[in-house]
Amino acid sequence: MHYKLLISIVPHNCGEFISNAAKSAGAGGGTIAMGRGTASNGVLQLLGLGDTSKDIVYIILEEEKLEEAKKAIILASESKKHFGVFFTLEVGSFMKAGTSTAPFVNQNQKTTLTTVKGENMSAKDSYIMINAIVNKGYAEDAMAAARKAGAGGGTIMSARGTAKEDDAAFFGMKIVPEKEMLMILVPAEKKDSIVKAITELPCFAQAGSGIIFCNEAQDFTILGKK
Known about the structure:
The protein is of the alpha+beta class. The protein has five helices and eleven strands, in the order βαββαβββββαβαβαβ.
C-alpha cells in the first residue's frame, strides 16, 4: 500500500474544516500546526496568503483515497475567497503507532500530477517545497533573501531543537532551543537560486545554525475563489 502526505495551508481556525472535508471522502484524521504567512501583499503568492495566522494541515492517506479527498476539499472550499492552497508529497516510509511488529511501508514508485476541478497546475509545472530550519529570529531574514531570489511568500512555524548539551560539545556548536521553520513553495527552476541566497546569509555561516531540505511538491492547487 502506498501513501501520500496532503498538506493544506488555510486561514487560522479553518484546519478542522479541511480535515473534516478529507474525512468525508475516506481519509483518516490529520494534524494541524499553526504558522504565519509572509506574503508582501494581498495577492496570493504561493504559500504566503498575507501576513496572517495560518493553519497547516497534515493528512497522511492511502494513495487510492487521494483523488476523492482532493475533490472533497476543493468542493468544500469553492465558496470561500483566497482560502488557501494544498499540495501533496511522497511518503517514503510510514508506520502507525501500535503496529511496531509491522515493517515500514516503502514507496519508491514515481507518480505524476493529476488534474481535478479547481485551479490545479498542469503536469509540466513542477514545484519544489523548500524547508529551512533556523534559529529563532532568522526566518524573516531567510524569507527576505528568498524573495530577492524570486520567491513569492512563505509560511513560518515556531519550533524547538532537541539536542542535548553533550551533543553541543561533541559537534562544537551552540545549542539554541528555539527554532523557526520556513516553508516556501517555488517553481522548480527557482530552487537553486533561492537555496543559494538563504545559505549565503550570515546566520548560516556558523556550523549548526540551520538546515535546508527540499521536496518535490505534487498536485499544487489553489483553494477557493480568486
